[in-house]
Amino acid sequence: MFGPRFEAVAACPQCGEKLELAFSAQEIRVPAAELAESHCVEIDGHQVRFVPPASADLLDVAETAAGSGQRERLLGRCVQSVSRQGGSVEIAALPETVRQGVMEAMAQADPQADVQVALDCPACLHRWSMAFDILAYLWGEIEDWAARLLLDVHTLASAYGWSERDILAMSSRRRRFYLDRVGG
Question: What is the pLDDT of residue 116?
């Protein structure tokens, strides 16, 4: 929506220094060849075949009340089959150690699920990594875009007396033309 570059600010957890960072989507993207469709893991004698969660799975699970219901729902969506000693096993009958192991295997199976950005503080030389939350980043970009648009509307309405509706009906290129004329 806003291009392939990400620009953000982070605070050093050691000294509080503000760091500006910029990176491209390509730099954090895992090649499709590394993402397998189906995985099999053996835990405590159980053979479990699963697919890593997709966005639709996570959205579905997010609609479930917090607690163990979310994990059960995610396992139900992602586990394709479970067997032990040649026989089929229901997901609900899995021991806790197997459930936890499957969840860990699902996290490891999708390296794109937990994107970490390595940071170095120039002030205190502290090194750390932090998770890049694409949803939080996107929402912040949308909020910034909306604030800029409202400021543009205010500037044009003040300069020309146009209504908000008329200003928003213009293309962004046309709004920019008028904003450049009033110094906005």
Answer: 86
